[in-house]
From TrEMBL:
Signal peptide: none annotated. One of its GO terms (molecular function) is oxoglutarate dehydrogenase (succinyl-transferring) activity. InterPro entries: 2-oxogl_dehyd_N, 2oxoglutarate_DH_E1, DH_E1, KGD_C_sf, ODO-1/KGD_C, THDP-binding, Transketolase-like_Pyr-bd. E1 component of the 2-oxoglutarate dehydrogenase (OGDH) complex which catalyzes the decarboxylation of 2-oxoglutarate, the first step in the conversion of 2-oxoglutarate to succinyl-CoA and CO(2). Residues 598-791 form the Transketolase-like pyrimidine-binding domain. Keywords: Oxidoreductase, Thiamine pyrophosphate. Its cofactor is thiamine diphosphate. The gene is sucA. SMART domains: Transket_pyr. It comes from Alteromonas gilva. This is oxoglutarate dehydrogenase (succinyl-transferring).
Length: 940
């Protein structure tokens, strides 16, 4: 240690062993803010040992040992100033205690904040916020102390003034939680913004009036609907009225800062109010919906409080395009959908994160209770799913359906504690204080824009009615609803405040209410900022009005295919491949040379290469998508020397479209919902989600049910998402066999999506290309293979790829004489090769095999042409690997009956019905497979 620093130690009287706790507390204050201690102490602490080069944080055990050694050097009885050591020590101890008091408010002030408009919260005593806990008292109020990093704009303050300031800042209508954040810059930024204005900046007159207008609108609409349609469900916002001025303020500020698009996701609570009072939906249209009127061309439709909407919103920075996402009653599932939509919009804007803002609005019980929230938080900073941070707003009405006891709804103090997993700041605010609400809204937006991370606003409010307007809340929350009945609405509270401040007169307030009521009577848009849409982010018109059989040309020349293949097998010389991967690429070179036929992986990559070469981008995600779960794809090559990655698909040509392949987080629900959102916002991209195993899609079932299969019918939302679900019975047990084909077939109707089971590399090549080239956008569900990836019979030639046609049905490939055929077996997928191999071994010529490569929409005309050759055959069999109650047998049987000849018999060959998708014993599996193949081929 330097001599000058040593002298400082010797000149100090505070290094006696009895003061170890005091010194350590002083050091903790230094770690939190070096400027909070005196220059002499700072120079001492600056010279202490560092760990791993870290400037501030040091190993405390080393520090303590250093203190002990220095204290042992000799008695330090006198300080250099000549003051008594007791007096100086006591003064410095109190200074440290004051700094600890400041930190206590930063850490725990929110626990004593005035957050509940109803005053029902039972707050536990927090001793850390009491003067006595820090050996301070009111007798110290006149003593001036250094306030360290407390960002009030003063270096020193009397304790009494500081204590009041801390309570105003951290225990008023705002309760800020941010000290769990490990990033010092983020904490400092939040402290400065909150403490510099004591969490309550000045609000100008115009802003106050705009806030009141928002509250008048929120309250006015609910009362209008309540009187016009009494008893009708509307999932009222009443109690959380501040959401309306909050959202309008957020959009206005975002637009002022350069944002061009805002995408909002929310459940049904308050949605109608947001539609009318923020997005500018015409009230007369809403009234028609309440009256049961609807457009016959809109398909199945949905209830009005699930509906989405788009509009433009005028701000000082220009118009902002607003999009409220459609959402079913699976409350939080819309969150990753919004993220995906935002990511697509960002990709179009060259990832300028300031241009697109995601906003998600949650319920207090839902955000804590539904696992997709955790999954979405977990994705928020990952490479493939980051969107530059999301502003998350919780409408905290303190009750979920009928459950209000915290111990029944969550295991944490706050419903927002889940956000701490990503170190998001959490800003609790009393919704009856709309000026505080507006402050935290701007604070949240600025934090998101600066640090590109999530931020949470907990809007603590209440629910004036039951879960819906026909519910009776007093049955389960009598005390709460007796309080609510007597509690004035937010508009009344704030209007009285502005009247008292002289901002407005009572007549002015009444006129605002009358004007809003008149606008509702007139049925016209009530949002002054609404503008006709000019900020459309993408044009869907080219994809409208096309049928499945719309002609398209997917052919590609052999020369082009060979060139693409050469680019696919080219990588830097110093990029060392793992030995097995190197063998894969050696084989691919042989395929291009004509020495081998193409396998599945090569054909698939050629499809992607052709697509990006022709100008369509690709986004591909899944848990093992770069390599492929079954070691077949290897689109991303990992250097065995330094772990660097190289993707040949990104180097096809200089003018190619972009392609990204992401190994996703270990999630199905949130990741697939993200990709659905992406695909609904970007028709010019081939968006693919791949399950690690097909049955893992179970975890995303709500996305299939509520969005992918029915989104077009309910909401008119087109989507071209491609879903790859590995499927096939290889004896791997019940959880790694079936992608649950039957579930997807059961959801088939109205030509909502395609369900395909390709059986050759050429088929997958042309299926993928068809999804892009055909001028329509429908989801594609693919039962993709496992063992066929390397099956010696599942190979194709370059010529077969170049034809550019996906065959929905493939007829007999062996040279059988049609008139000699006595039985026809229809099947899909891997079982075809088992049937073909066994038939050849049996040297049978009287059984024909037809492959159905597309099960929906069922290719009736194509199938009829192939079946016509066997019109004399009366013995028809459907063969499948899945149990009888699963697979295609029950869901598609009616289609099979329609194509077989009149008077023919249709029977089943496959596994018996089972509660489990597959058996768990390989020997049993093999016997079952042998039996079903024999059953299909044996003419009885």
């Amino acid at each position: 240690m330097q001599e000058s620093v040593m002298k400082a130690w010797w000149d100090s009287s505070h290094m006696a062993g009895a003061n170890a706790a005091y010194v350590e507390a002083l050091y903790e204050a230094y770690l939190d803010d070096p400027q909070s201690v005196t220059d002499s102490w700072r120079s001492i602490f600056d010279a202490l040992p560092k760990v791993d080069g870290v400037e501030l944080e040091s190993n405390h055990s080393q520090i303590r040992e250093q203190f002990k050694k220095l204290a042992a050097l000799g008695p330090l009885a006198r300080c250099s100033t000549g003051k008594s050591s007791d007096t100086s020590n006591q003064s410095d101890e109190k200074q440290v205690k004051v700094l600890q008091l400041i930190n206590a408010y930063r850490f725990r002030g929110h626990q004593h904040a005035n957050l509940d408009p109803l005053g029902l919260w039972q707050q536990e005593r927090v001793r850390d916020l009491e003067l006595s806990h820090h050996s301070l008292s009111e007798t110290d109020f006149d003593t001036v102390f250094n306030v360290g990093s407390y960002a009030i704009g003063k270096e020193t303050m009397p304790l009494g003034e500081l204590f009041k300031s801390l309570n105003r800042t951290y225990c008023s209508s705002l309760g800020a939680e941010y000290m769990h954040i490990t990033d010092t810059e983020q904490k400092r930024w939040l402290q400065q913004r909150i403490e510099s204005v004591e969490a309550r900046p000045e609000v100008d007159r115009d802003t106050k009036i705009n806030i009141l207008k928002g509250l008048v609108a929120a309250d006015g609409m609910e009362k209008y609907l309540g009187s016009k349609f009494p008893g009708a469900k509307r999932f009222s916002l009443e109690g959380g009225d501040a959401l309306i001025p909050m959202l309008k303020g957020l959009i206005t500020e975002a637009g002022t800062q350069g944002t061009k698009e805002v995408v909002v996701g929310m459940a049904h609570r308050g949605r109608l109010n947001v539609l009318v009072n923020v997005l500018g939906k015409n009230p007369s249209v809403l009234f028609d919906e309440f009256g049961g009127k609807h457009d016959e061309s809109l398909g199945a439709g949905d209830v009005k409080y699930h509906a989405g909407y788009s509009s433009d919103f005028a701000t000082p920075g220009g118009n902002v395009h607003l999009a409220l996402a459609f959402n079913p009653s699976h409350l939080e599932i819309v969150n990753p959908v919004v993220m995906g939509s935002v990511r697509a919009r960002l990709d179009r804007r060259e990832n300028d994160e300031g241009k697109v803002l995601p906003v998600t609005i949650h319920g207090d019980s839902a955000i804590a209770g539904q696992g997709v929230v955790q999954e979405t938080f977990n994705m928020s900073q990952t490479r493939g799913f980051a969107v530059g941070g999301t502003v998350r707003i919780v409408i905290n009405n303190q009750v979920g359906f009928t459950t209000s006891k915290i111990q029944d709804t969550r295991s944490t103090q706050y419903c927002t504690d889940i956000a701490k997993m990503v170190q998001a700041p959490i800003l609790h605010v009393n919704s009856d204080d709309p000026e505080a609400v507006l402050f935290v809204t701007k604070l949240a937006l600025d934090f998101r824009n600066k640090f590109k991370r999530d931020v949470v606003i907990d809007l603590v409010c209440y629910r004036r009615h039951g879960h819906n307007e026909s519910d009776e809340p007093n049955a389960t929350q009598p005390v709460m609803y007796q309080k609510i009945k007597k509690h004035p609405v937010p508009r009344e509270i704030y209007a009285d405040q502005l009247i008292a401040e002289g901002v407005l007169g009572e007549q002015d307030v009444n006129k605002l209410m009358e004007d809003y009521r008149a606008a509702m009577d007139h049925g016209a848009c009530v949002v002054e900022e609404w503008r006709p849409m000019t900020e459309h982010s993408v044009d869907w018109h080219p994809f409208l009005g096309h049928d499945w059989d719309t002609p398209y040309d997917g052919s590609i020349s052999l020369e082009t295919l060979k060139h693409l293949g050469e680019r696919l097998v080219t990588y830097p010389e110093d990029h060392k491949l793992q030995s097995r991967v190197n063998k894969v690429y050696t084989d691919r070179k042989a395929m291009l040379a004509g020495d081998r036929k193409l396998d599945w992986g090569m054909a698939e990559l050629l499809a992607y290469a052709s697509i990006v070469k022709e100008g369509t981008s690709i986004r591909f995600s899944g848990q093992d998508s770069g390599r492929g779960t079954f070691f077949h794809r290897h689109a991303v090559l990992h250097n065995q020397t330094d772990s660097s990655a190289y993707m040949p698909l990104q180097h096809i040509s200089e003018d190619q479209a972009p392609i990204e392949i992401y190994d996703s987080v270990l999630s199905e629900e949130a990741v697939m919902a993200f990709e659905y959102g992406y695909a609904t916002a970007e028709p010019e991209c081939l968006t693919i989600w791949e399950a690690q195993f097909g049955d893992f899609a179970n975890g995303a079932q709500v996305v299939f049910d509520q969005f992918l299969s029915s989104g077009e019918a309910k909401w008119g939302r087109l989507c071209g998402l491609t879903v790859l679900l590995p499927h096939g019975y290889e004896g791997q047990g019940p959880e790694h066999s079936s992608a649950r084909l039957e579930r997807f077939l059961q959801l088939c109707a109205d030509h909502n999506w395609q369900v395909c089971v390709p059986s050759t590399p050429a088929q997958v090549f042309n299926m993928i290309r068809r999804q892009v080239i055909r001028p329509m956008r429908k989801p594609l569900i693919v039962m993709s293979p496992k063992s066929l990836l390397r099956h010696p019979m599942a190979v194709s030639s370059l010529e077969e790829l170049s034809e550019g046609v996906f065959h929905n049905v493939i007829g007999e490939i062996d040279e059988l004489t049609a008139k000699d055929v006595k039985r026809v077996v229809m099947c899909s997928g891997k079982v075809y090769y088992d049937l073909l191999d066994q038939r050849r071994k049996n040297e049978q010529t009287d059984v024909a095999i037809i492959r159905l490569e597309q099960l929906y929409p069922f290719p009736q005309e194509e199938c009829a042409k192939i079946v016509a050759e066997y019109s004399h055959v009366k013995d028809w069999v459907w063969c499948q690997e899945e149990p009888q109650n699963q697979g295609a047998w029950y869901c598609s049987q009616h289609h099979f009956w329609q194509v077989i000849p009149d008077g023919a018999k249709l029977t089943y060959a496959g596994r018996p019905a089972s509660a489990s998708p597959a058996v768990g014993y390989l020997s049993v599996h093999n016997q079952q497979q042998k039996n079903l193949v024999e059953d299909a081929l044996t003419i009885k």
